[in-house]
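We emphasize that the prediction below concerns an isolated chain of 110 residues; any contacts that depend on oligomerization or on bound cofactors are therefore not represented. The input was used exactly as deposited, without trimming of termini.
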Amino acid sequence: MLIVPAELVKKINDNRGDMTRAEFIDFLIDGQLKEQINKQQYATKEELHSFKQDMKKLLKSFLDFFVSYGLELGKESPKTEFDELTSRLQELEDDLASEGTGKEATIKWK
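Result of the prediction step, given as a token string:
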């Protein structure tokens, strides 16, 4: 037994159509639960932008690490490879500073 105010009973009766009161309340509860689940399945535009910026920062830190690691080992890498990495790092850093759109860093490892 569920005790509810008379106004709520009137709302239920006015809107339930051919359903019983129990079916209508069950339908409403299921609808609310599904709505909450659906809200949690998608990322917002701000979350995607933040994720993109974080991934750029992570990529930059990986590149910084590999460049400095290669320099620490003293391995002589071709000048063109080093210049290419340096220019890509600079582009990525400039992109992060300006938070521009449409730029992506791609690196080919040999």
